[in-house]
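Internal QA ticket QA-208
Title: Verify multi-chain structure generation after dependency bump
Assignee: T.L.

Test input:
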Amino acid sequence: MVRGSVQMKKLLVVLSGLVLFGCSEQSRLSSTPTPNAAPRATPNPGSNQTPGGPGLRSLAKHLYIGTGVAAPALGTEPYTSTLANEYNMAIAENVGKMRAVEAREGVFDFEAQDALVRFATVHNMKMQGGPLIWAPAIPDWMNEYRGNTAELTSIMTTYITTVMQHYSTKFPGVIIAWEVVNEATTSGLGVFSAVPNCVELAFRTARAADPNVALFYNDYGDETSGGTATKVHNLVAPLKQKGLVDAVGFQSHFATHNAPTMSAIKAAMESLGAIGLDVYVTEFDFSLPSANGTTPDNPDDLLTQATYYRDYLETCMATPNCKQFITWGFTDAHSWIPKFRKGSGAALPFDVNYNKKPAYYGMQDALSRAAAR
Ligand code: XIL
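Actual output:
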């Protein structure tokens, strides 16, 4: 407790001493609808506010503020009420992936993702769908597929059309943006690299399946310039000219040792804006060195993390084409980092016991200041 309050004082000093970016008053949501910041249609009993202040979503007037959702935790508390109170957007962390949806040829299992979409509907949240094509999530039967190219092409296009139309028909208007292709420049396209013009075909198929949703390409390392950012730019620019893509996702899995500067991120957002594309921050987390994966080895890192959360959210809000800001989970109790990056963790705004961390207050601060303007 004592440590917590000392940290909070330090945080307030850090936050109050930093210069803020200017924030445009114009609506920043051209290709996606306005997020509904009003109280939820079916509120949790009691209040729209979590203890200690209004939920992030009630402050996010012109922004989708979202999180990846660990489907197995949905329905458990306090996971569920925190999700509903704080966020106006969600994406399934795993149950929307190909490996989950079409684990067996021709058998589509939508149940787990449908449960999340129903939850989003009840709580007046919007969703991202997908990823539709992501090499690491291609199910075994597809990877082992030995048919010809035309058959493989049909497996891909049938998947995209079936999944998107399931949601546009059954839950119209909830999934407002689809992650059509993830990590083509970094993880490749797996078995689908045999499909001629695979990425363009995926986007063309998605556009035809539902012309009313935003389509985006997602990757990591595209948050700055050069390297992957250049490859992504070269991939999406021709697609944009053909009217097939609306936005680029910046995964943003950052850590103390590799987090880009805000000016580099802003420049990357603006260079995509210059060719008419929106940017979504799709999977932000900020890992700290952590032996147990949930508490930081050095508690002072929580302040560095808080400042970064605040600044990244502010950078997004100060850049007109940045429309969605999503973290990859919200509690350190459900985060992919400790499993995938040994010795790291504590990357999210709520701790393992769902206490708000300094990072949470960093986001709250950024949103309140923008809302006050
Ligand atoms: C991760 C999930 O968080 C894990 O639970 C799963 O085991 C593997 O995938 N980039 C992405 C996400 O685009 O889909 C990944 O999600 C994390 C890295």
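Spot checks passed. The longest strand covers residues 278-289.
Status: verified.
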